[in-house]
Design brief:
single chain, mainly alpha, 0% strand, globular
Length: 186
Amino acid sequence: MSLLLQIVLSFMKIGALAFGGGYAAVPLVEREVVEVQGWMSYAEFANLMAIDEVTPGPIIINCATFVGMRVAGIAGALAATIACIIPPCIVSFCLILAYRRFRRMSAMNEVIEALKCMACGLIASTLIRLFVSLVLPEGVLSQPDLTALAVSVGAFVVMRKTELSPILVLFCCGACVLGLHLALGI
């Protein structure tokens, strides 16, 4: 099977199963890209997530474009991006039609509540995996990366306690880490 076809099929699958929004789809992308296809390592995927955070646009499309570009250049980026967009468009259209027709049924509201719970679980799963891979980059028994821990906790606290722009917080965290590395020579 050609590489472009693999990219298209992988991202169509992700797009078709990416319920709950971009962050809920991250575990699907991670599994497909790292575990199934082996196009990236977990560390590279964590770097991808960092790049996605400072790139405008939907995270799932940014992921697809970045992975496609890394794996097969511009053709791969286009293939992955288009492939991840088509299934959600079709599913959204069908769901809108179904919702219009059945929105007054209590079963429809129960399904929507279940989907919200599933999305929260997927987002929590992604958060935990990314956090562990940042703080314990060499595995559970390794020495923790205290800088990553401090920056992660600091960013979380700042975002919860202030109304600063997430972009400003991202750039400040990057500047702090760069400053530490330059000052300490690490």
